[in-house]
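Page 47, continued from p. 46.
Same chain as before, 185 aa.
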Amino acid sequence: MEQEIGLPKEDLSDLRRLDPAILVWLEKLGLWISCAGIAVLGSMIIVTVVARYFVGSIIPDDLIIAGELMVTLVALPWAFVTADRGHIAVELFTNWATGRARILLDMFAAFVGLVMVVPLTYATWMDLVTAIEYGSYFDGDLYLPEWPGRTMFFIGFALMLVRMLLVLITDLLRLYDYDEPKVKE
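Result:
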């Protein structure tokens, strides 16, 4: 009996979707932190607006804090969205594709995503390192450091990069395991 190249087909069903427990936990944590950040940002905006109306400004550097919170709100859920394949996609032609063609289009989308995310992840890492090394801070009443927002942005990109790589591997495994439907005669 000849040895087959690649993974045995009976073992493939468990590998169809690669979900390391720690990555799933980090994705959900990022989503929950983002949700909590929305509540904090909304509360801060309400307090700031009411305080400005009645007593002037009460929260120093509120615009800086809001900006940094928005970075966190946007970046941390990216891996969760990627795992759900929830990114905006042009499905004008891909919905017509079936079978192997659809899997190949999914692989192409994951590859293009990786080509874009890898340099962006590297750039956010370099920006984070620079902010830490130079002790960068925002001018304002509190002189808030820049590294917390840069850290959240990098974590969001890094988790999305890992998840996108796993999506590509999952699609490769789907292609390997795909059986064309049999036509009944």
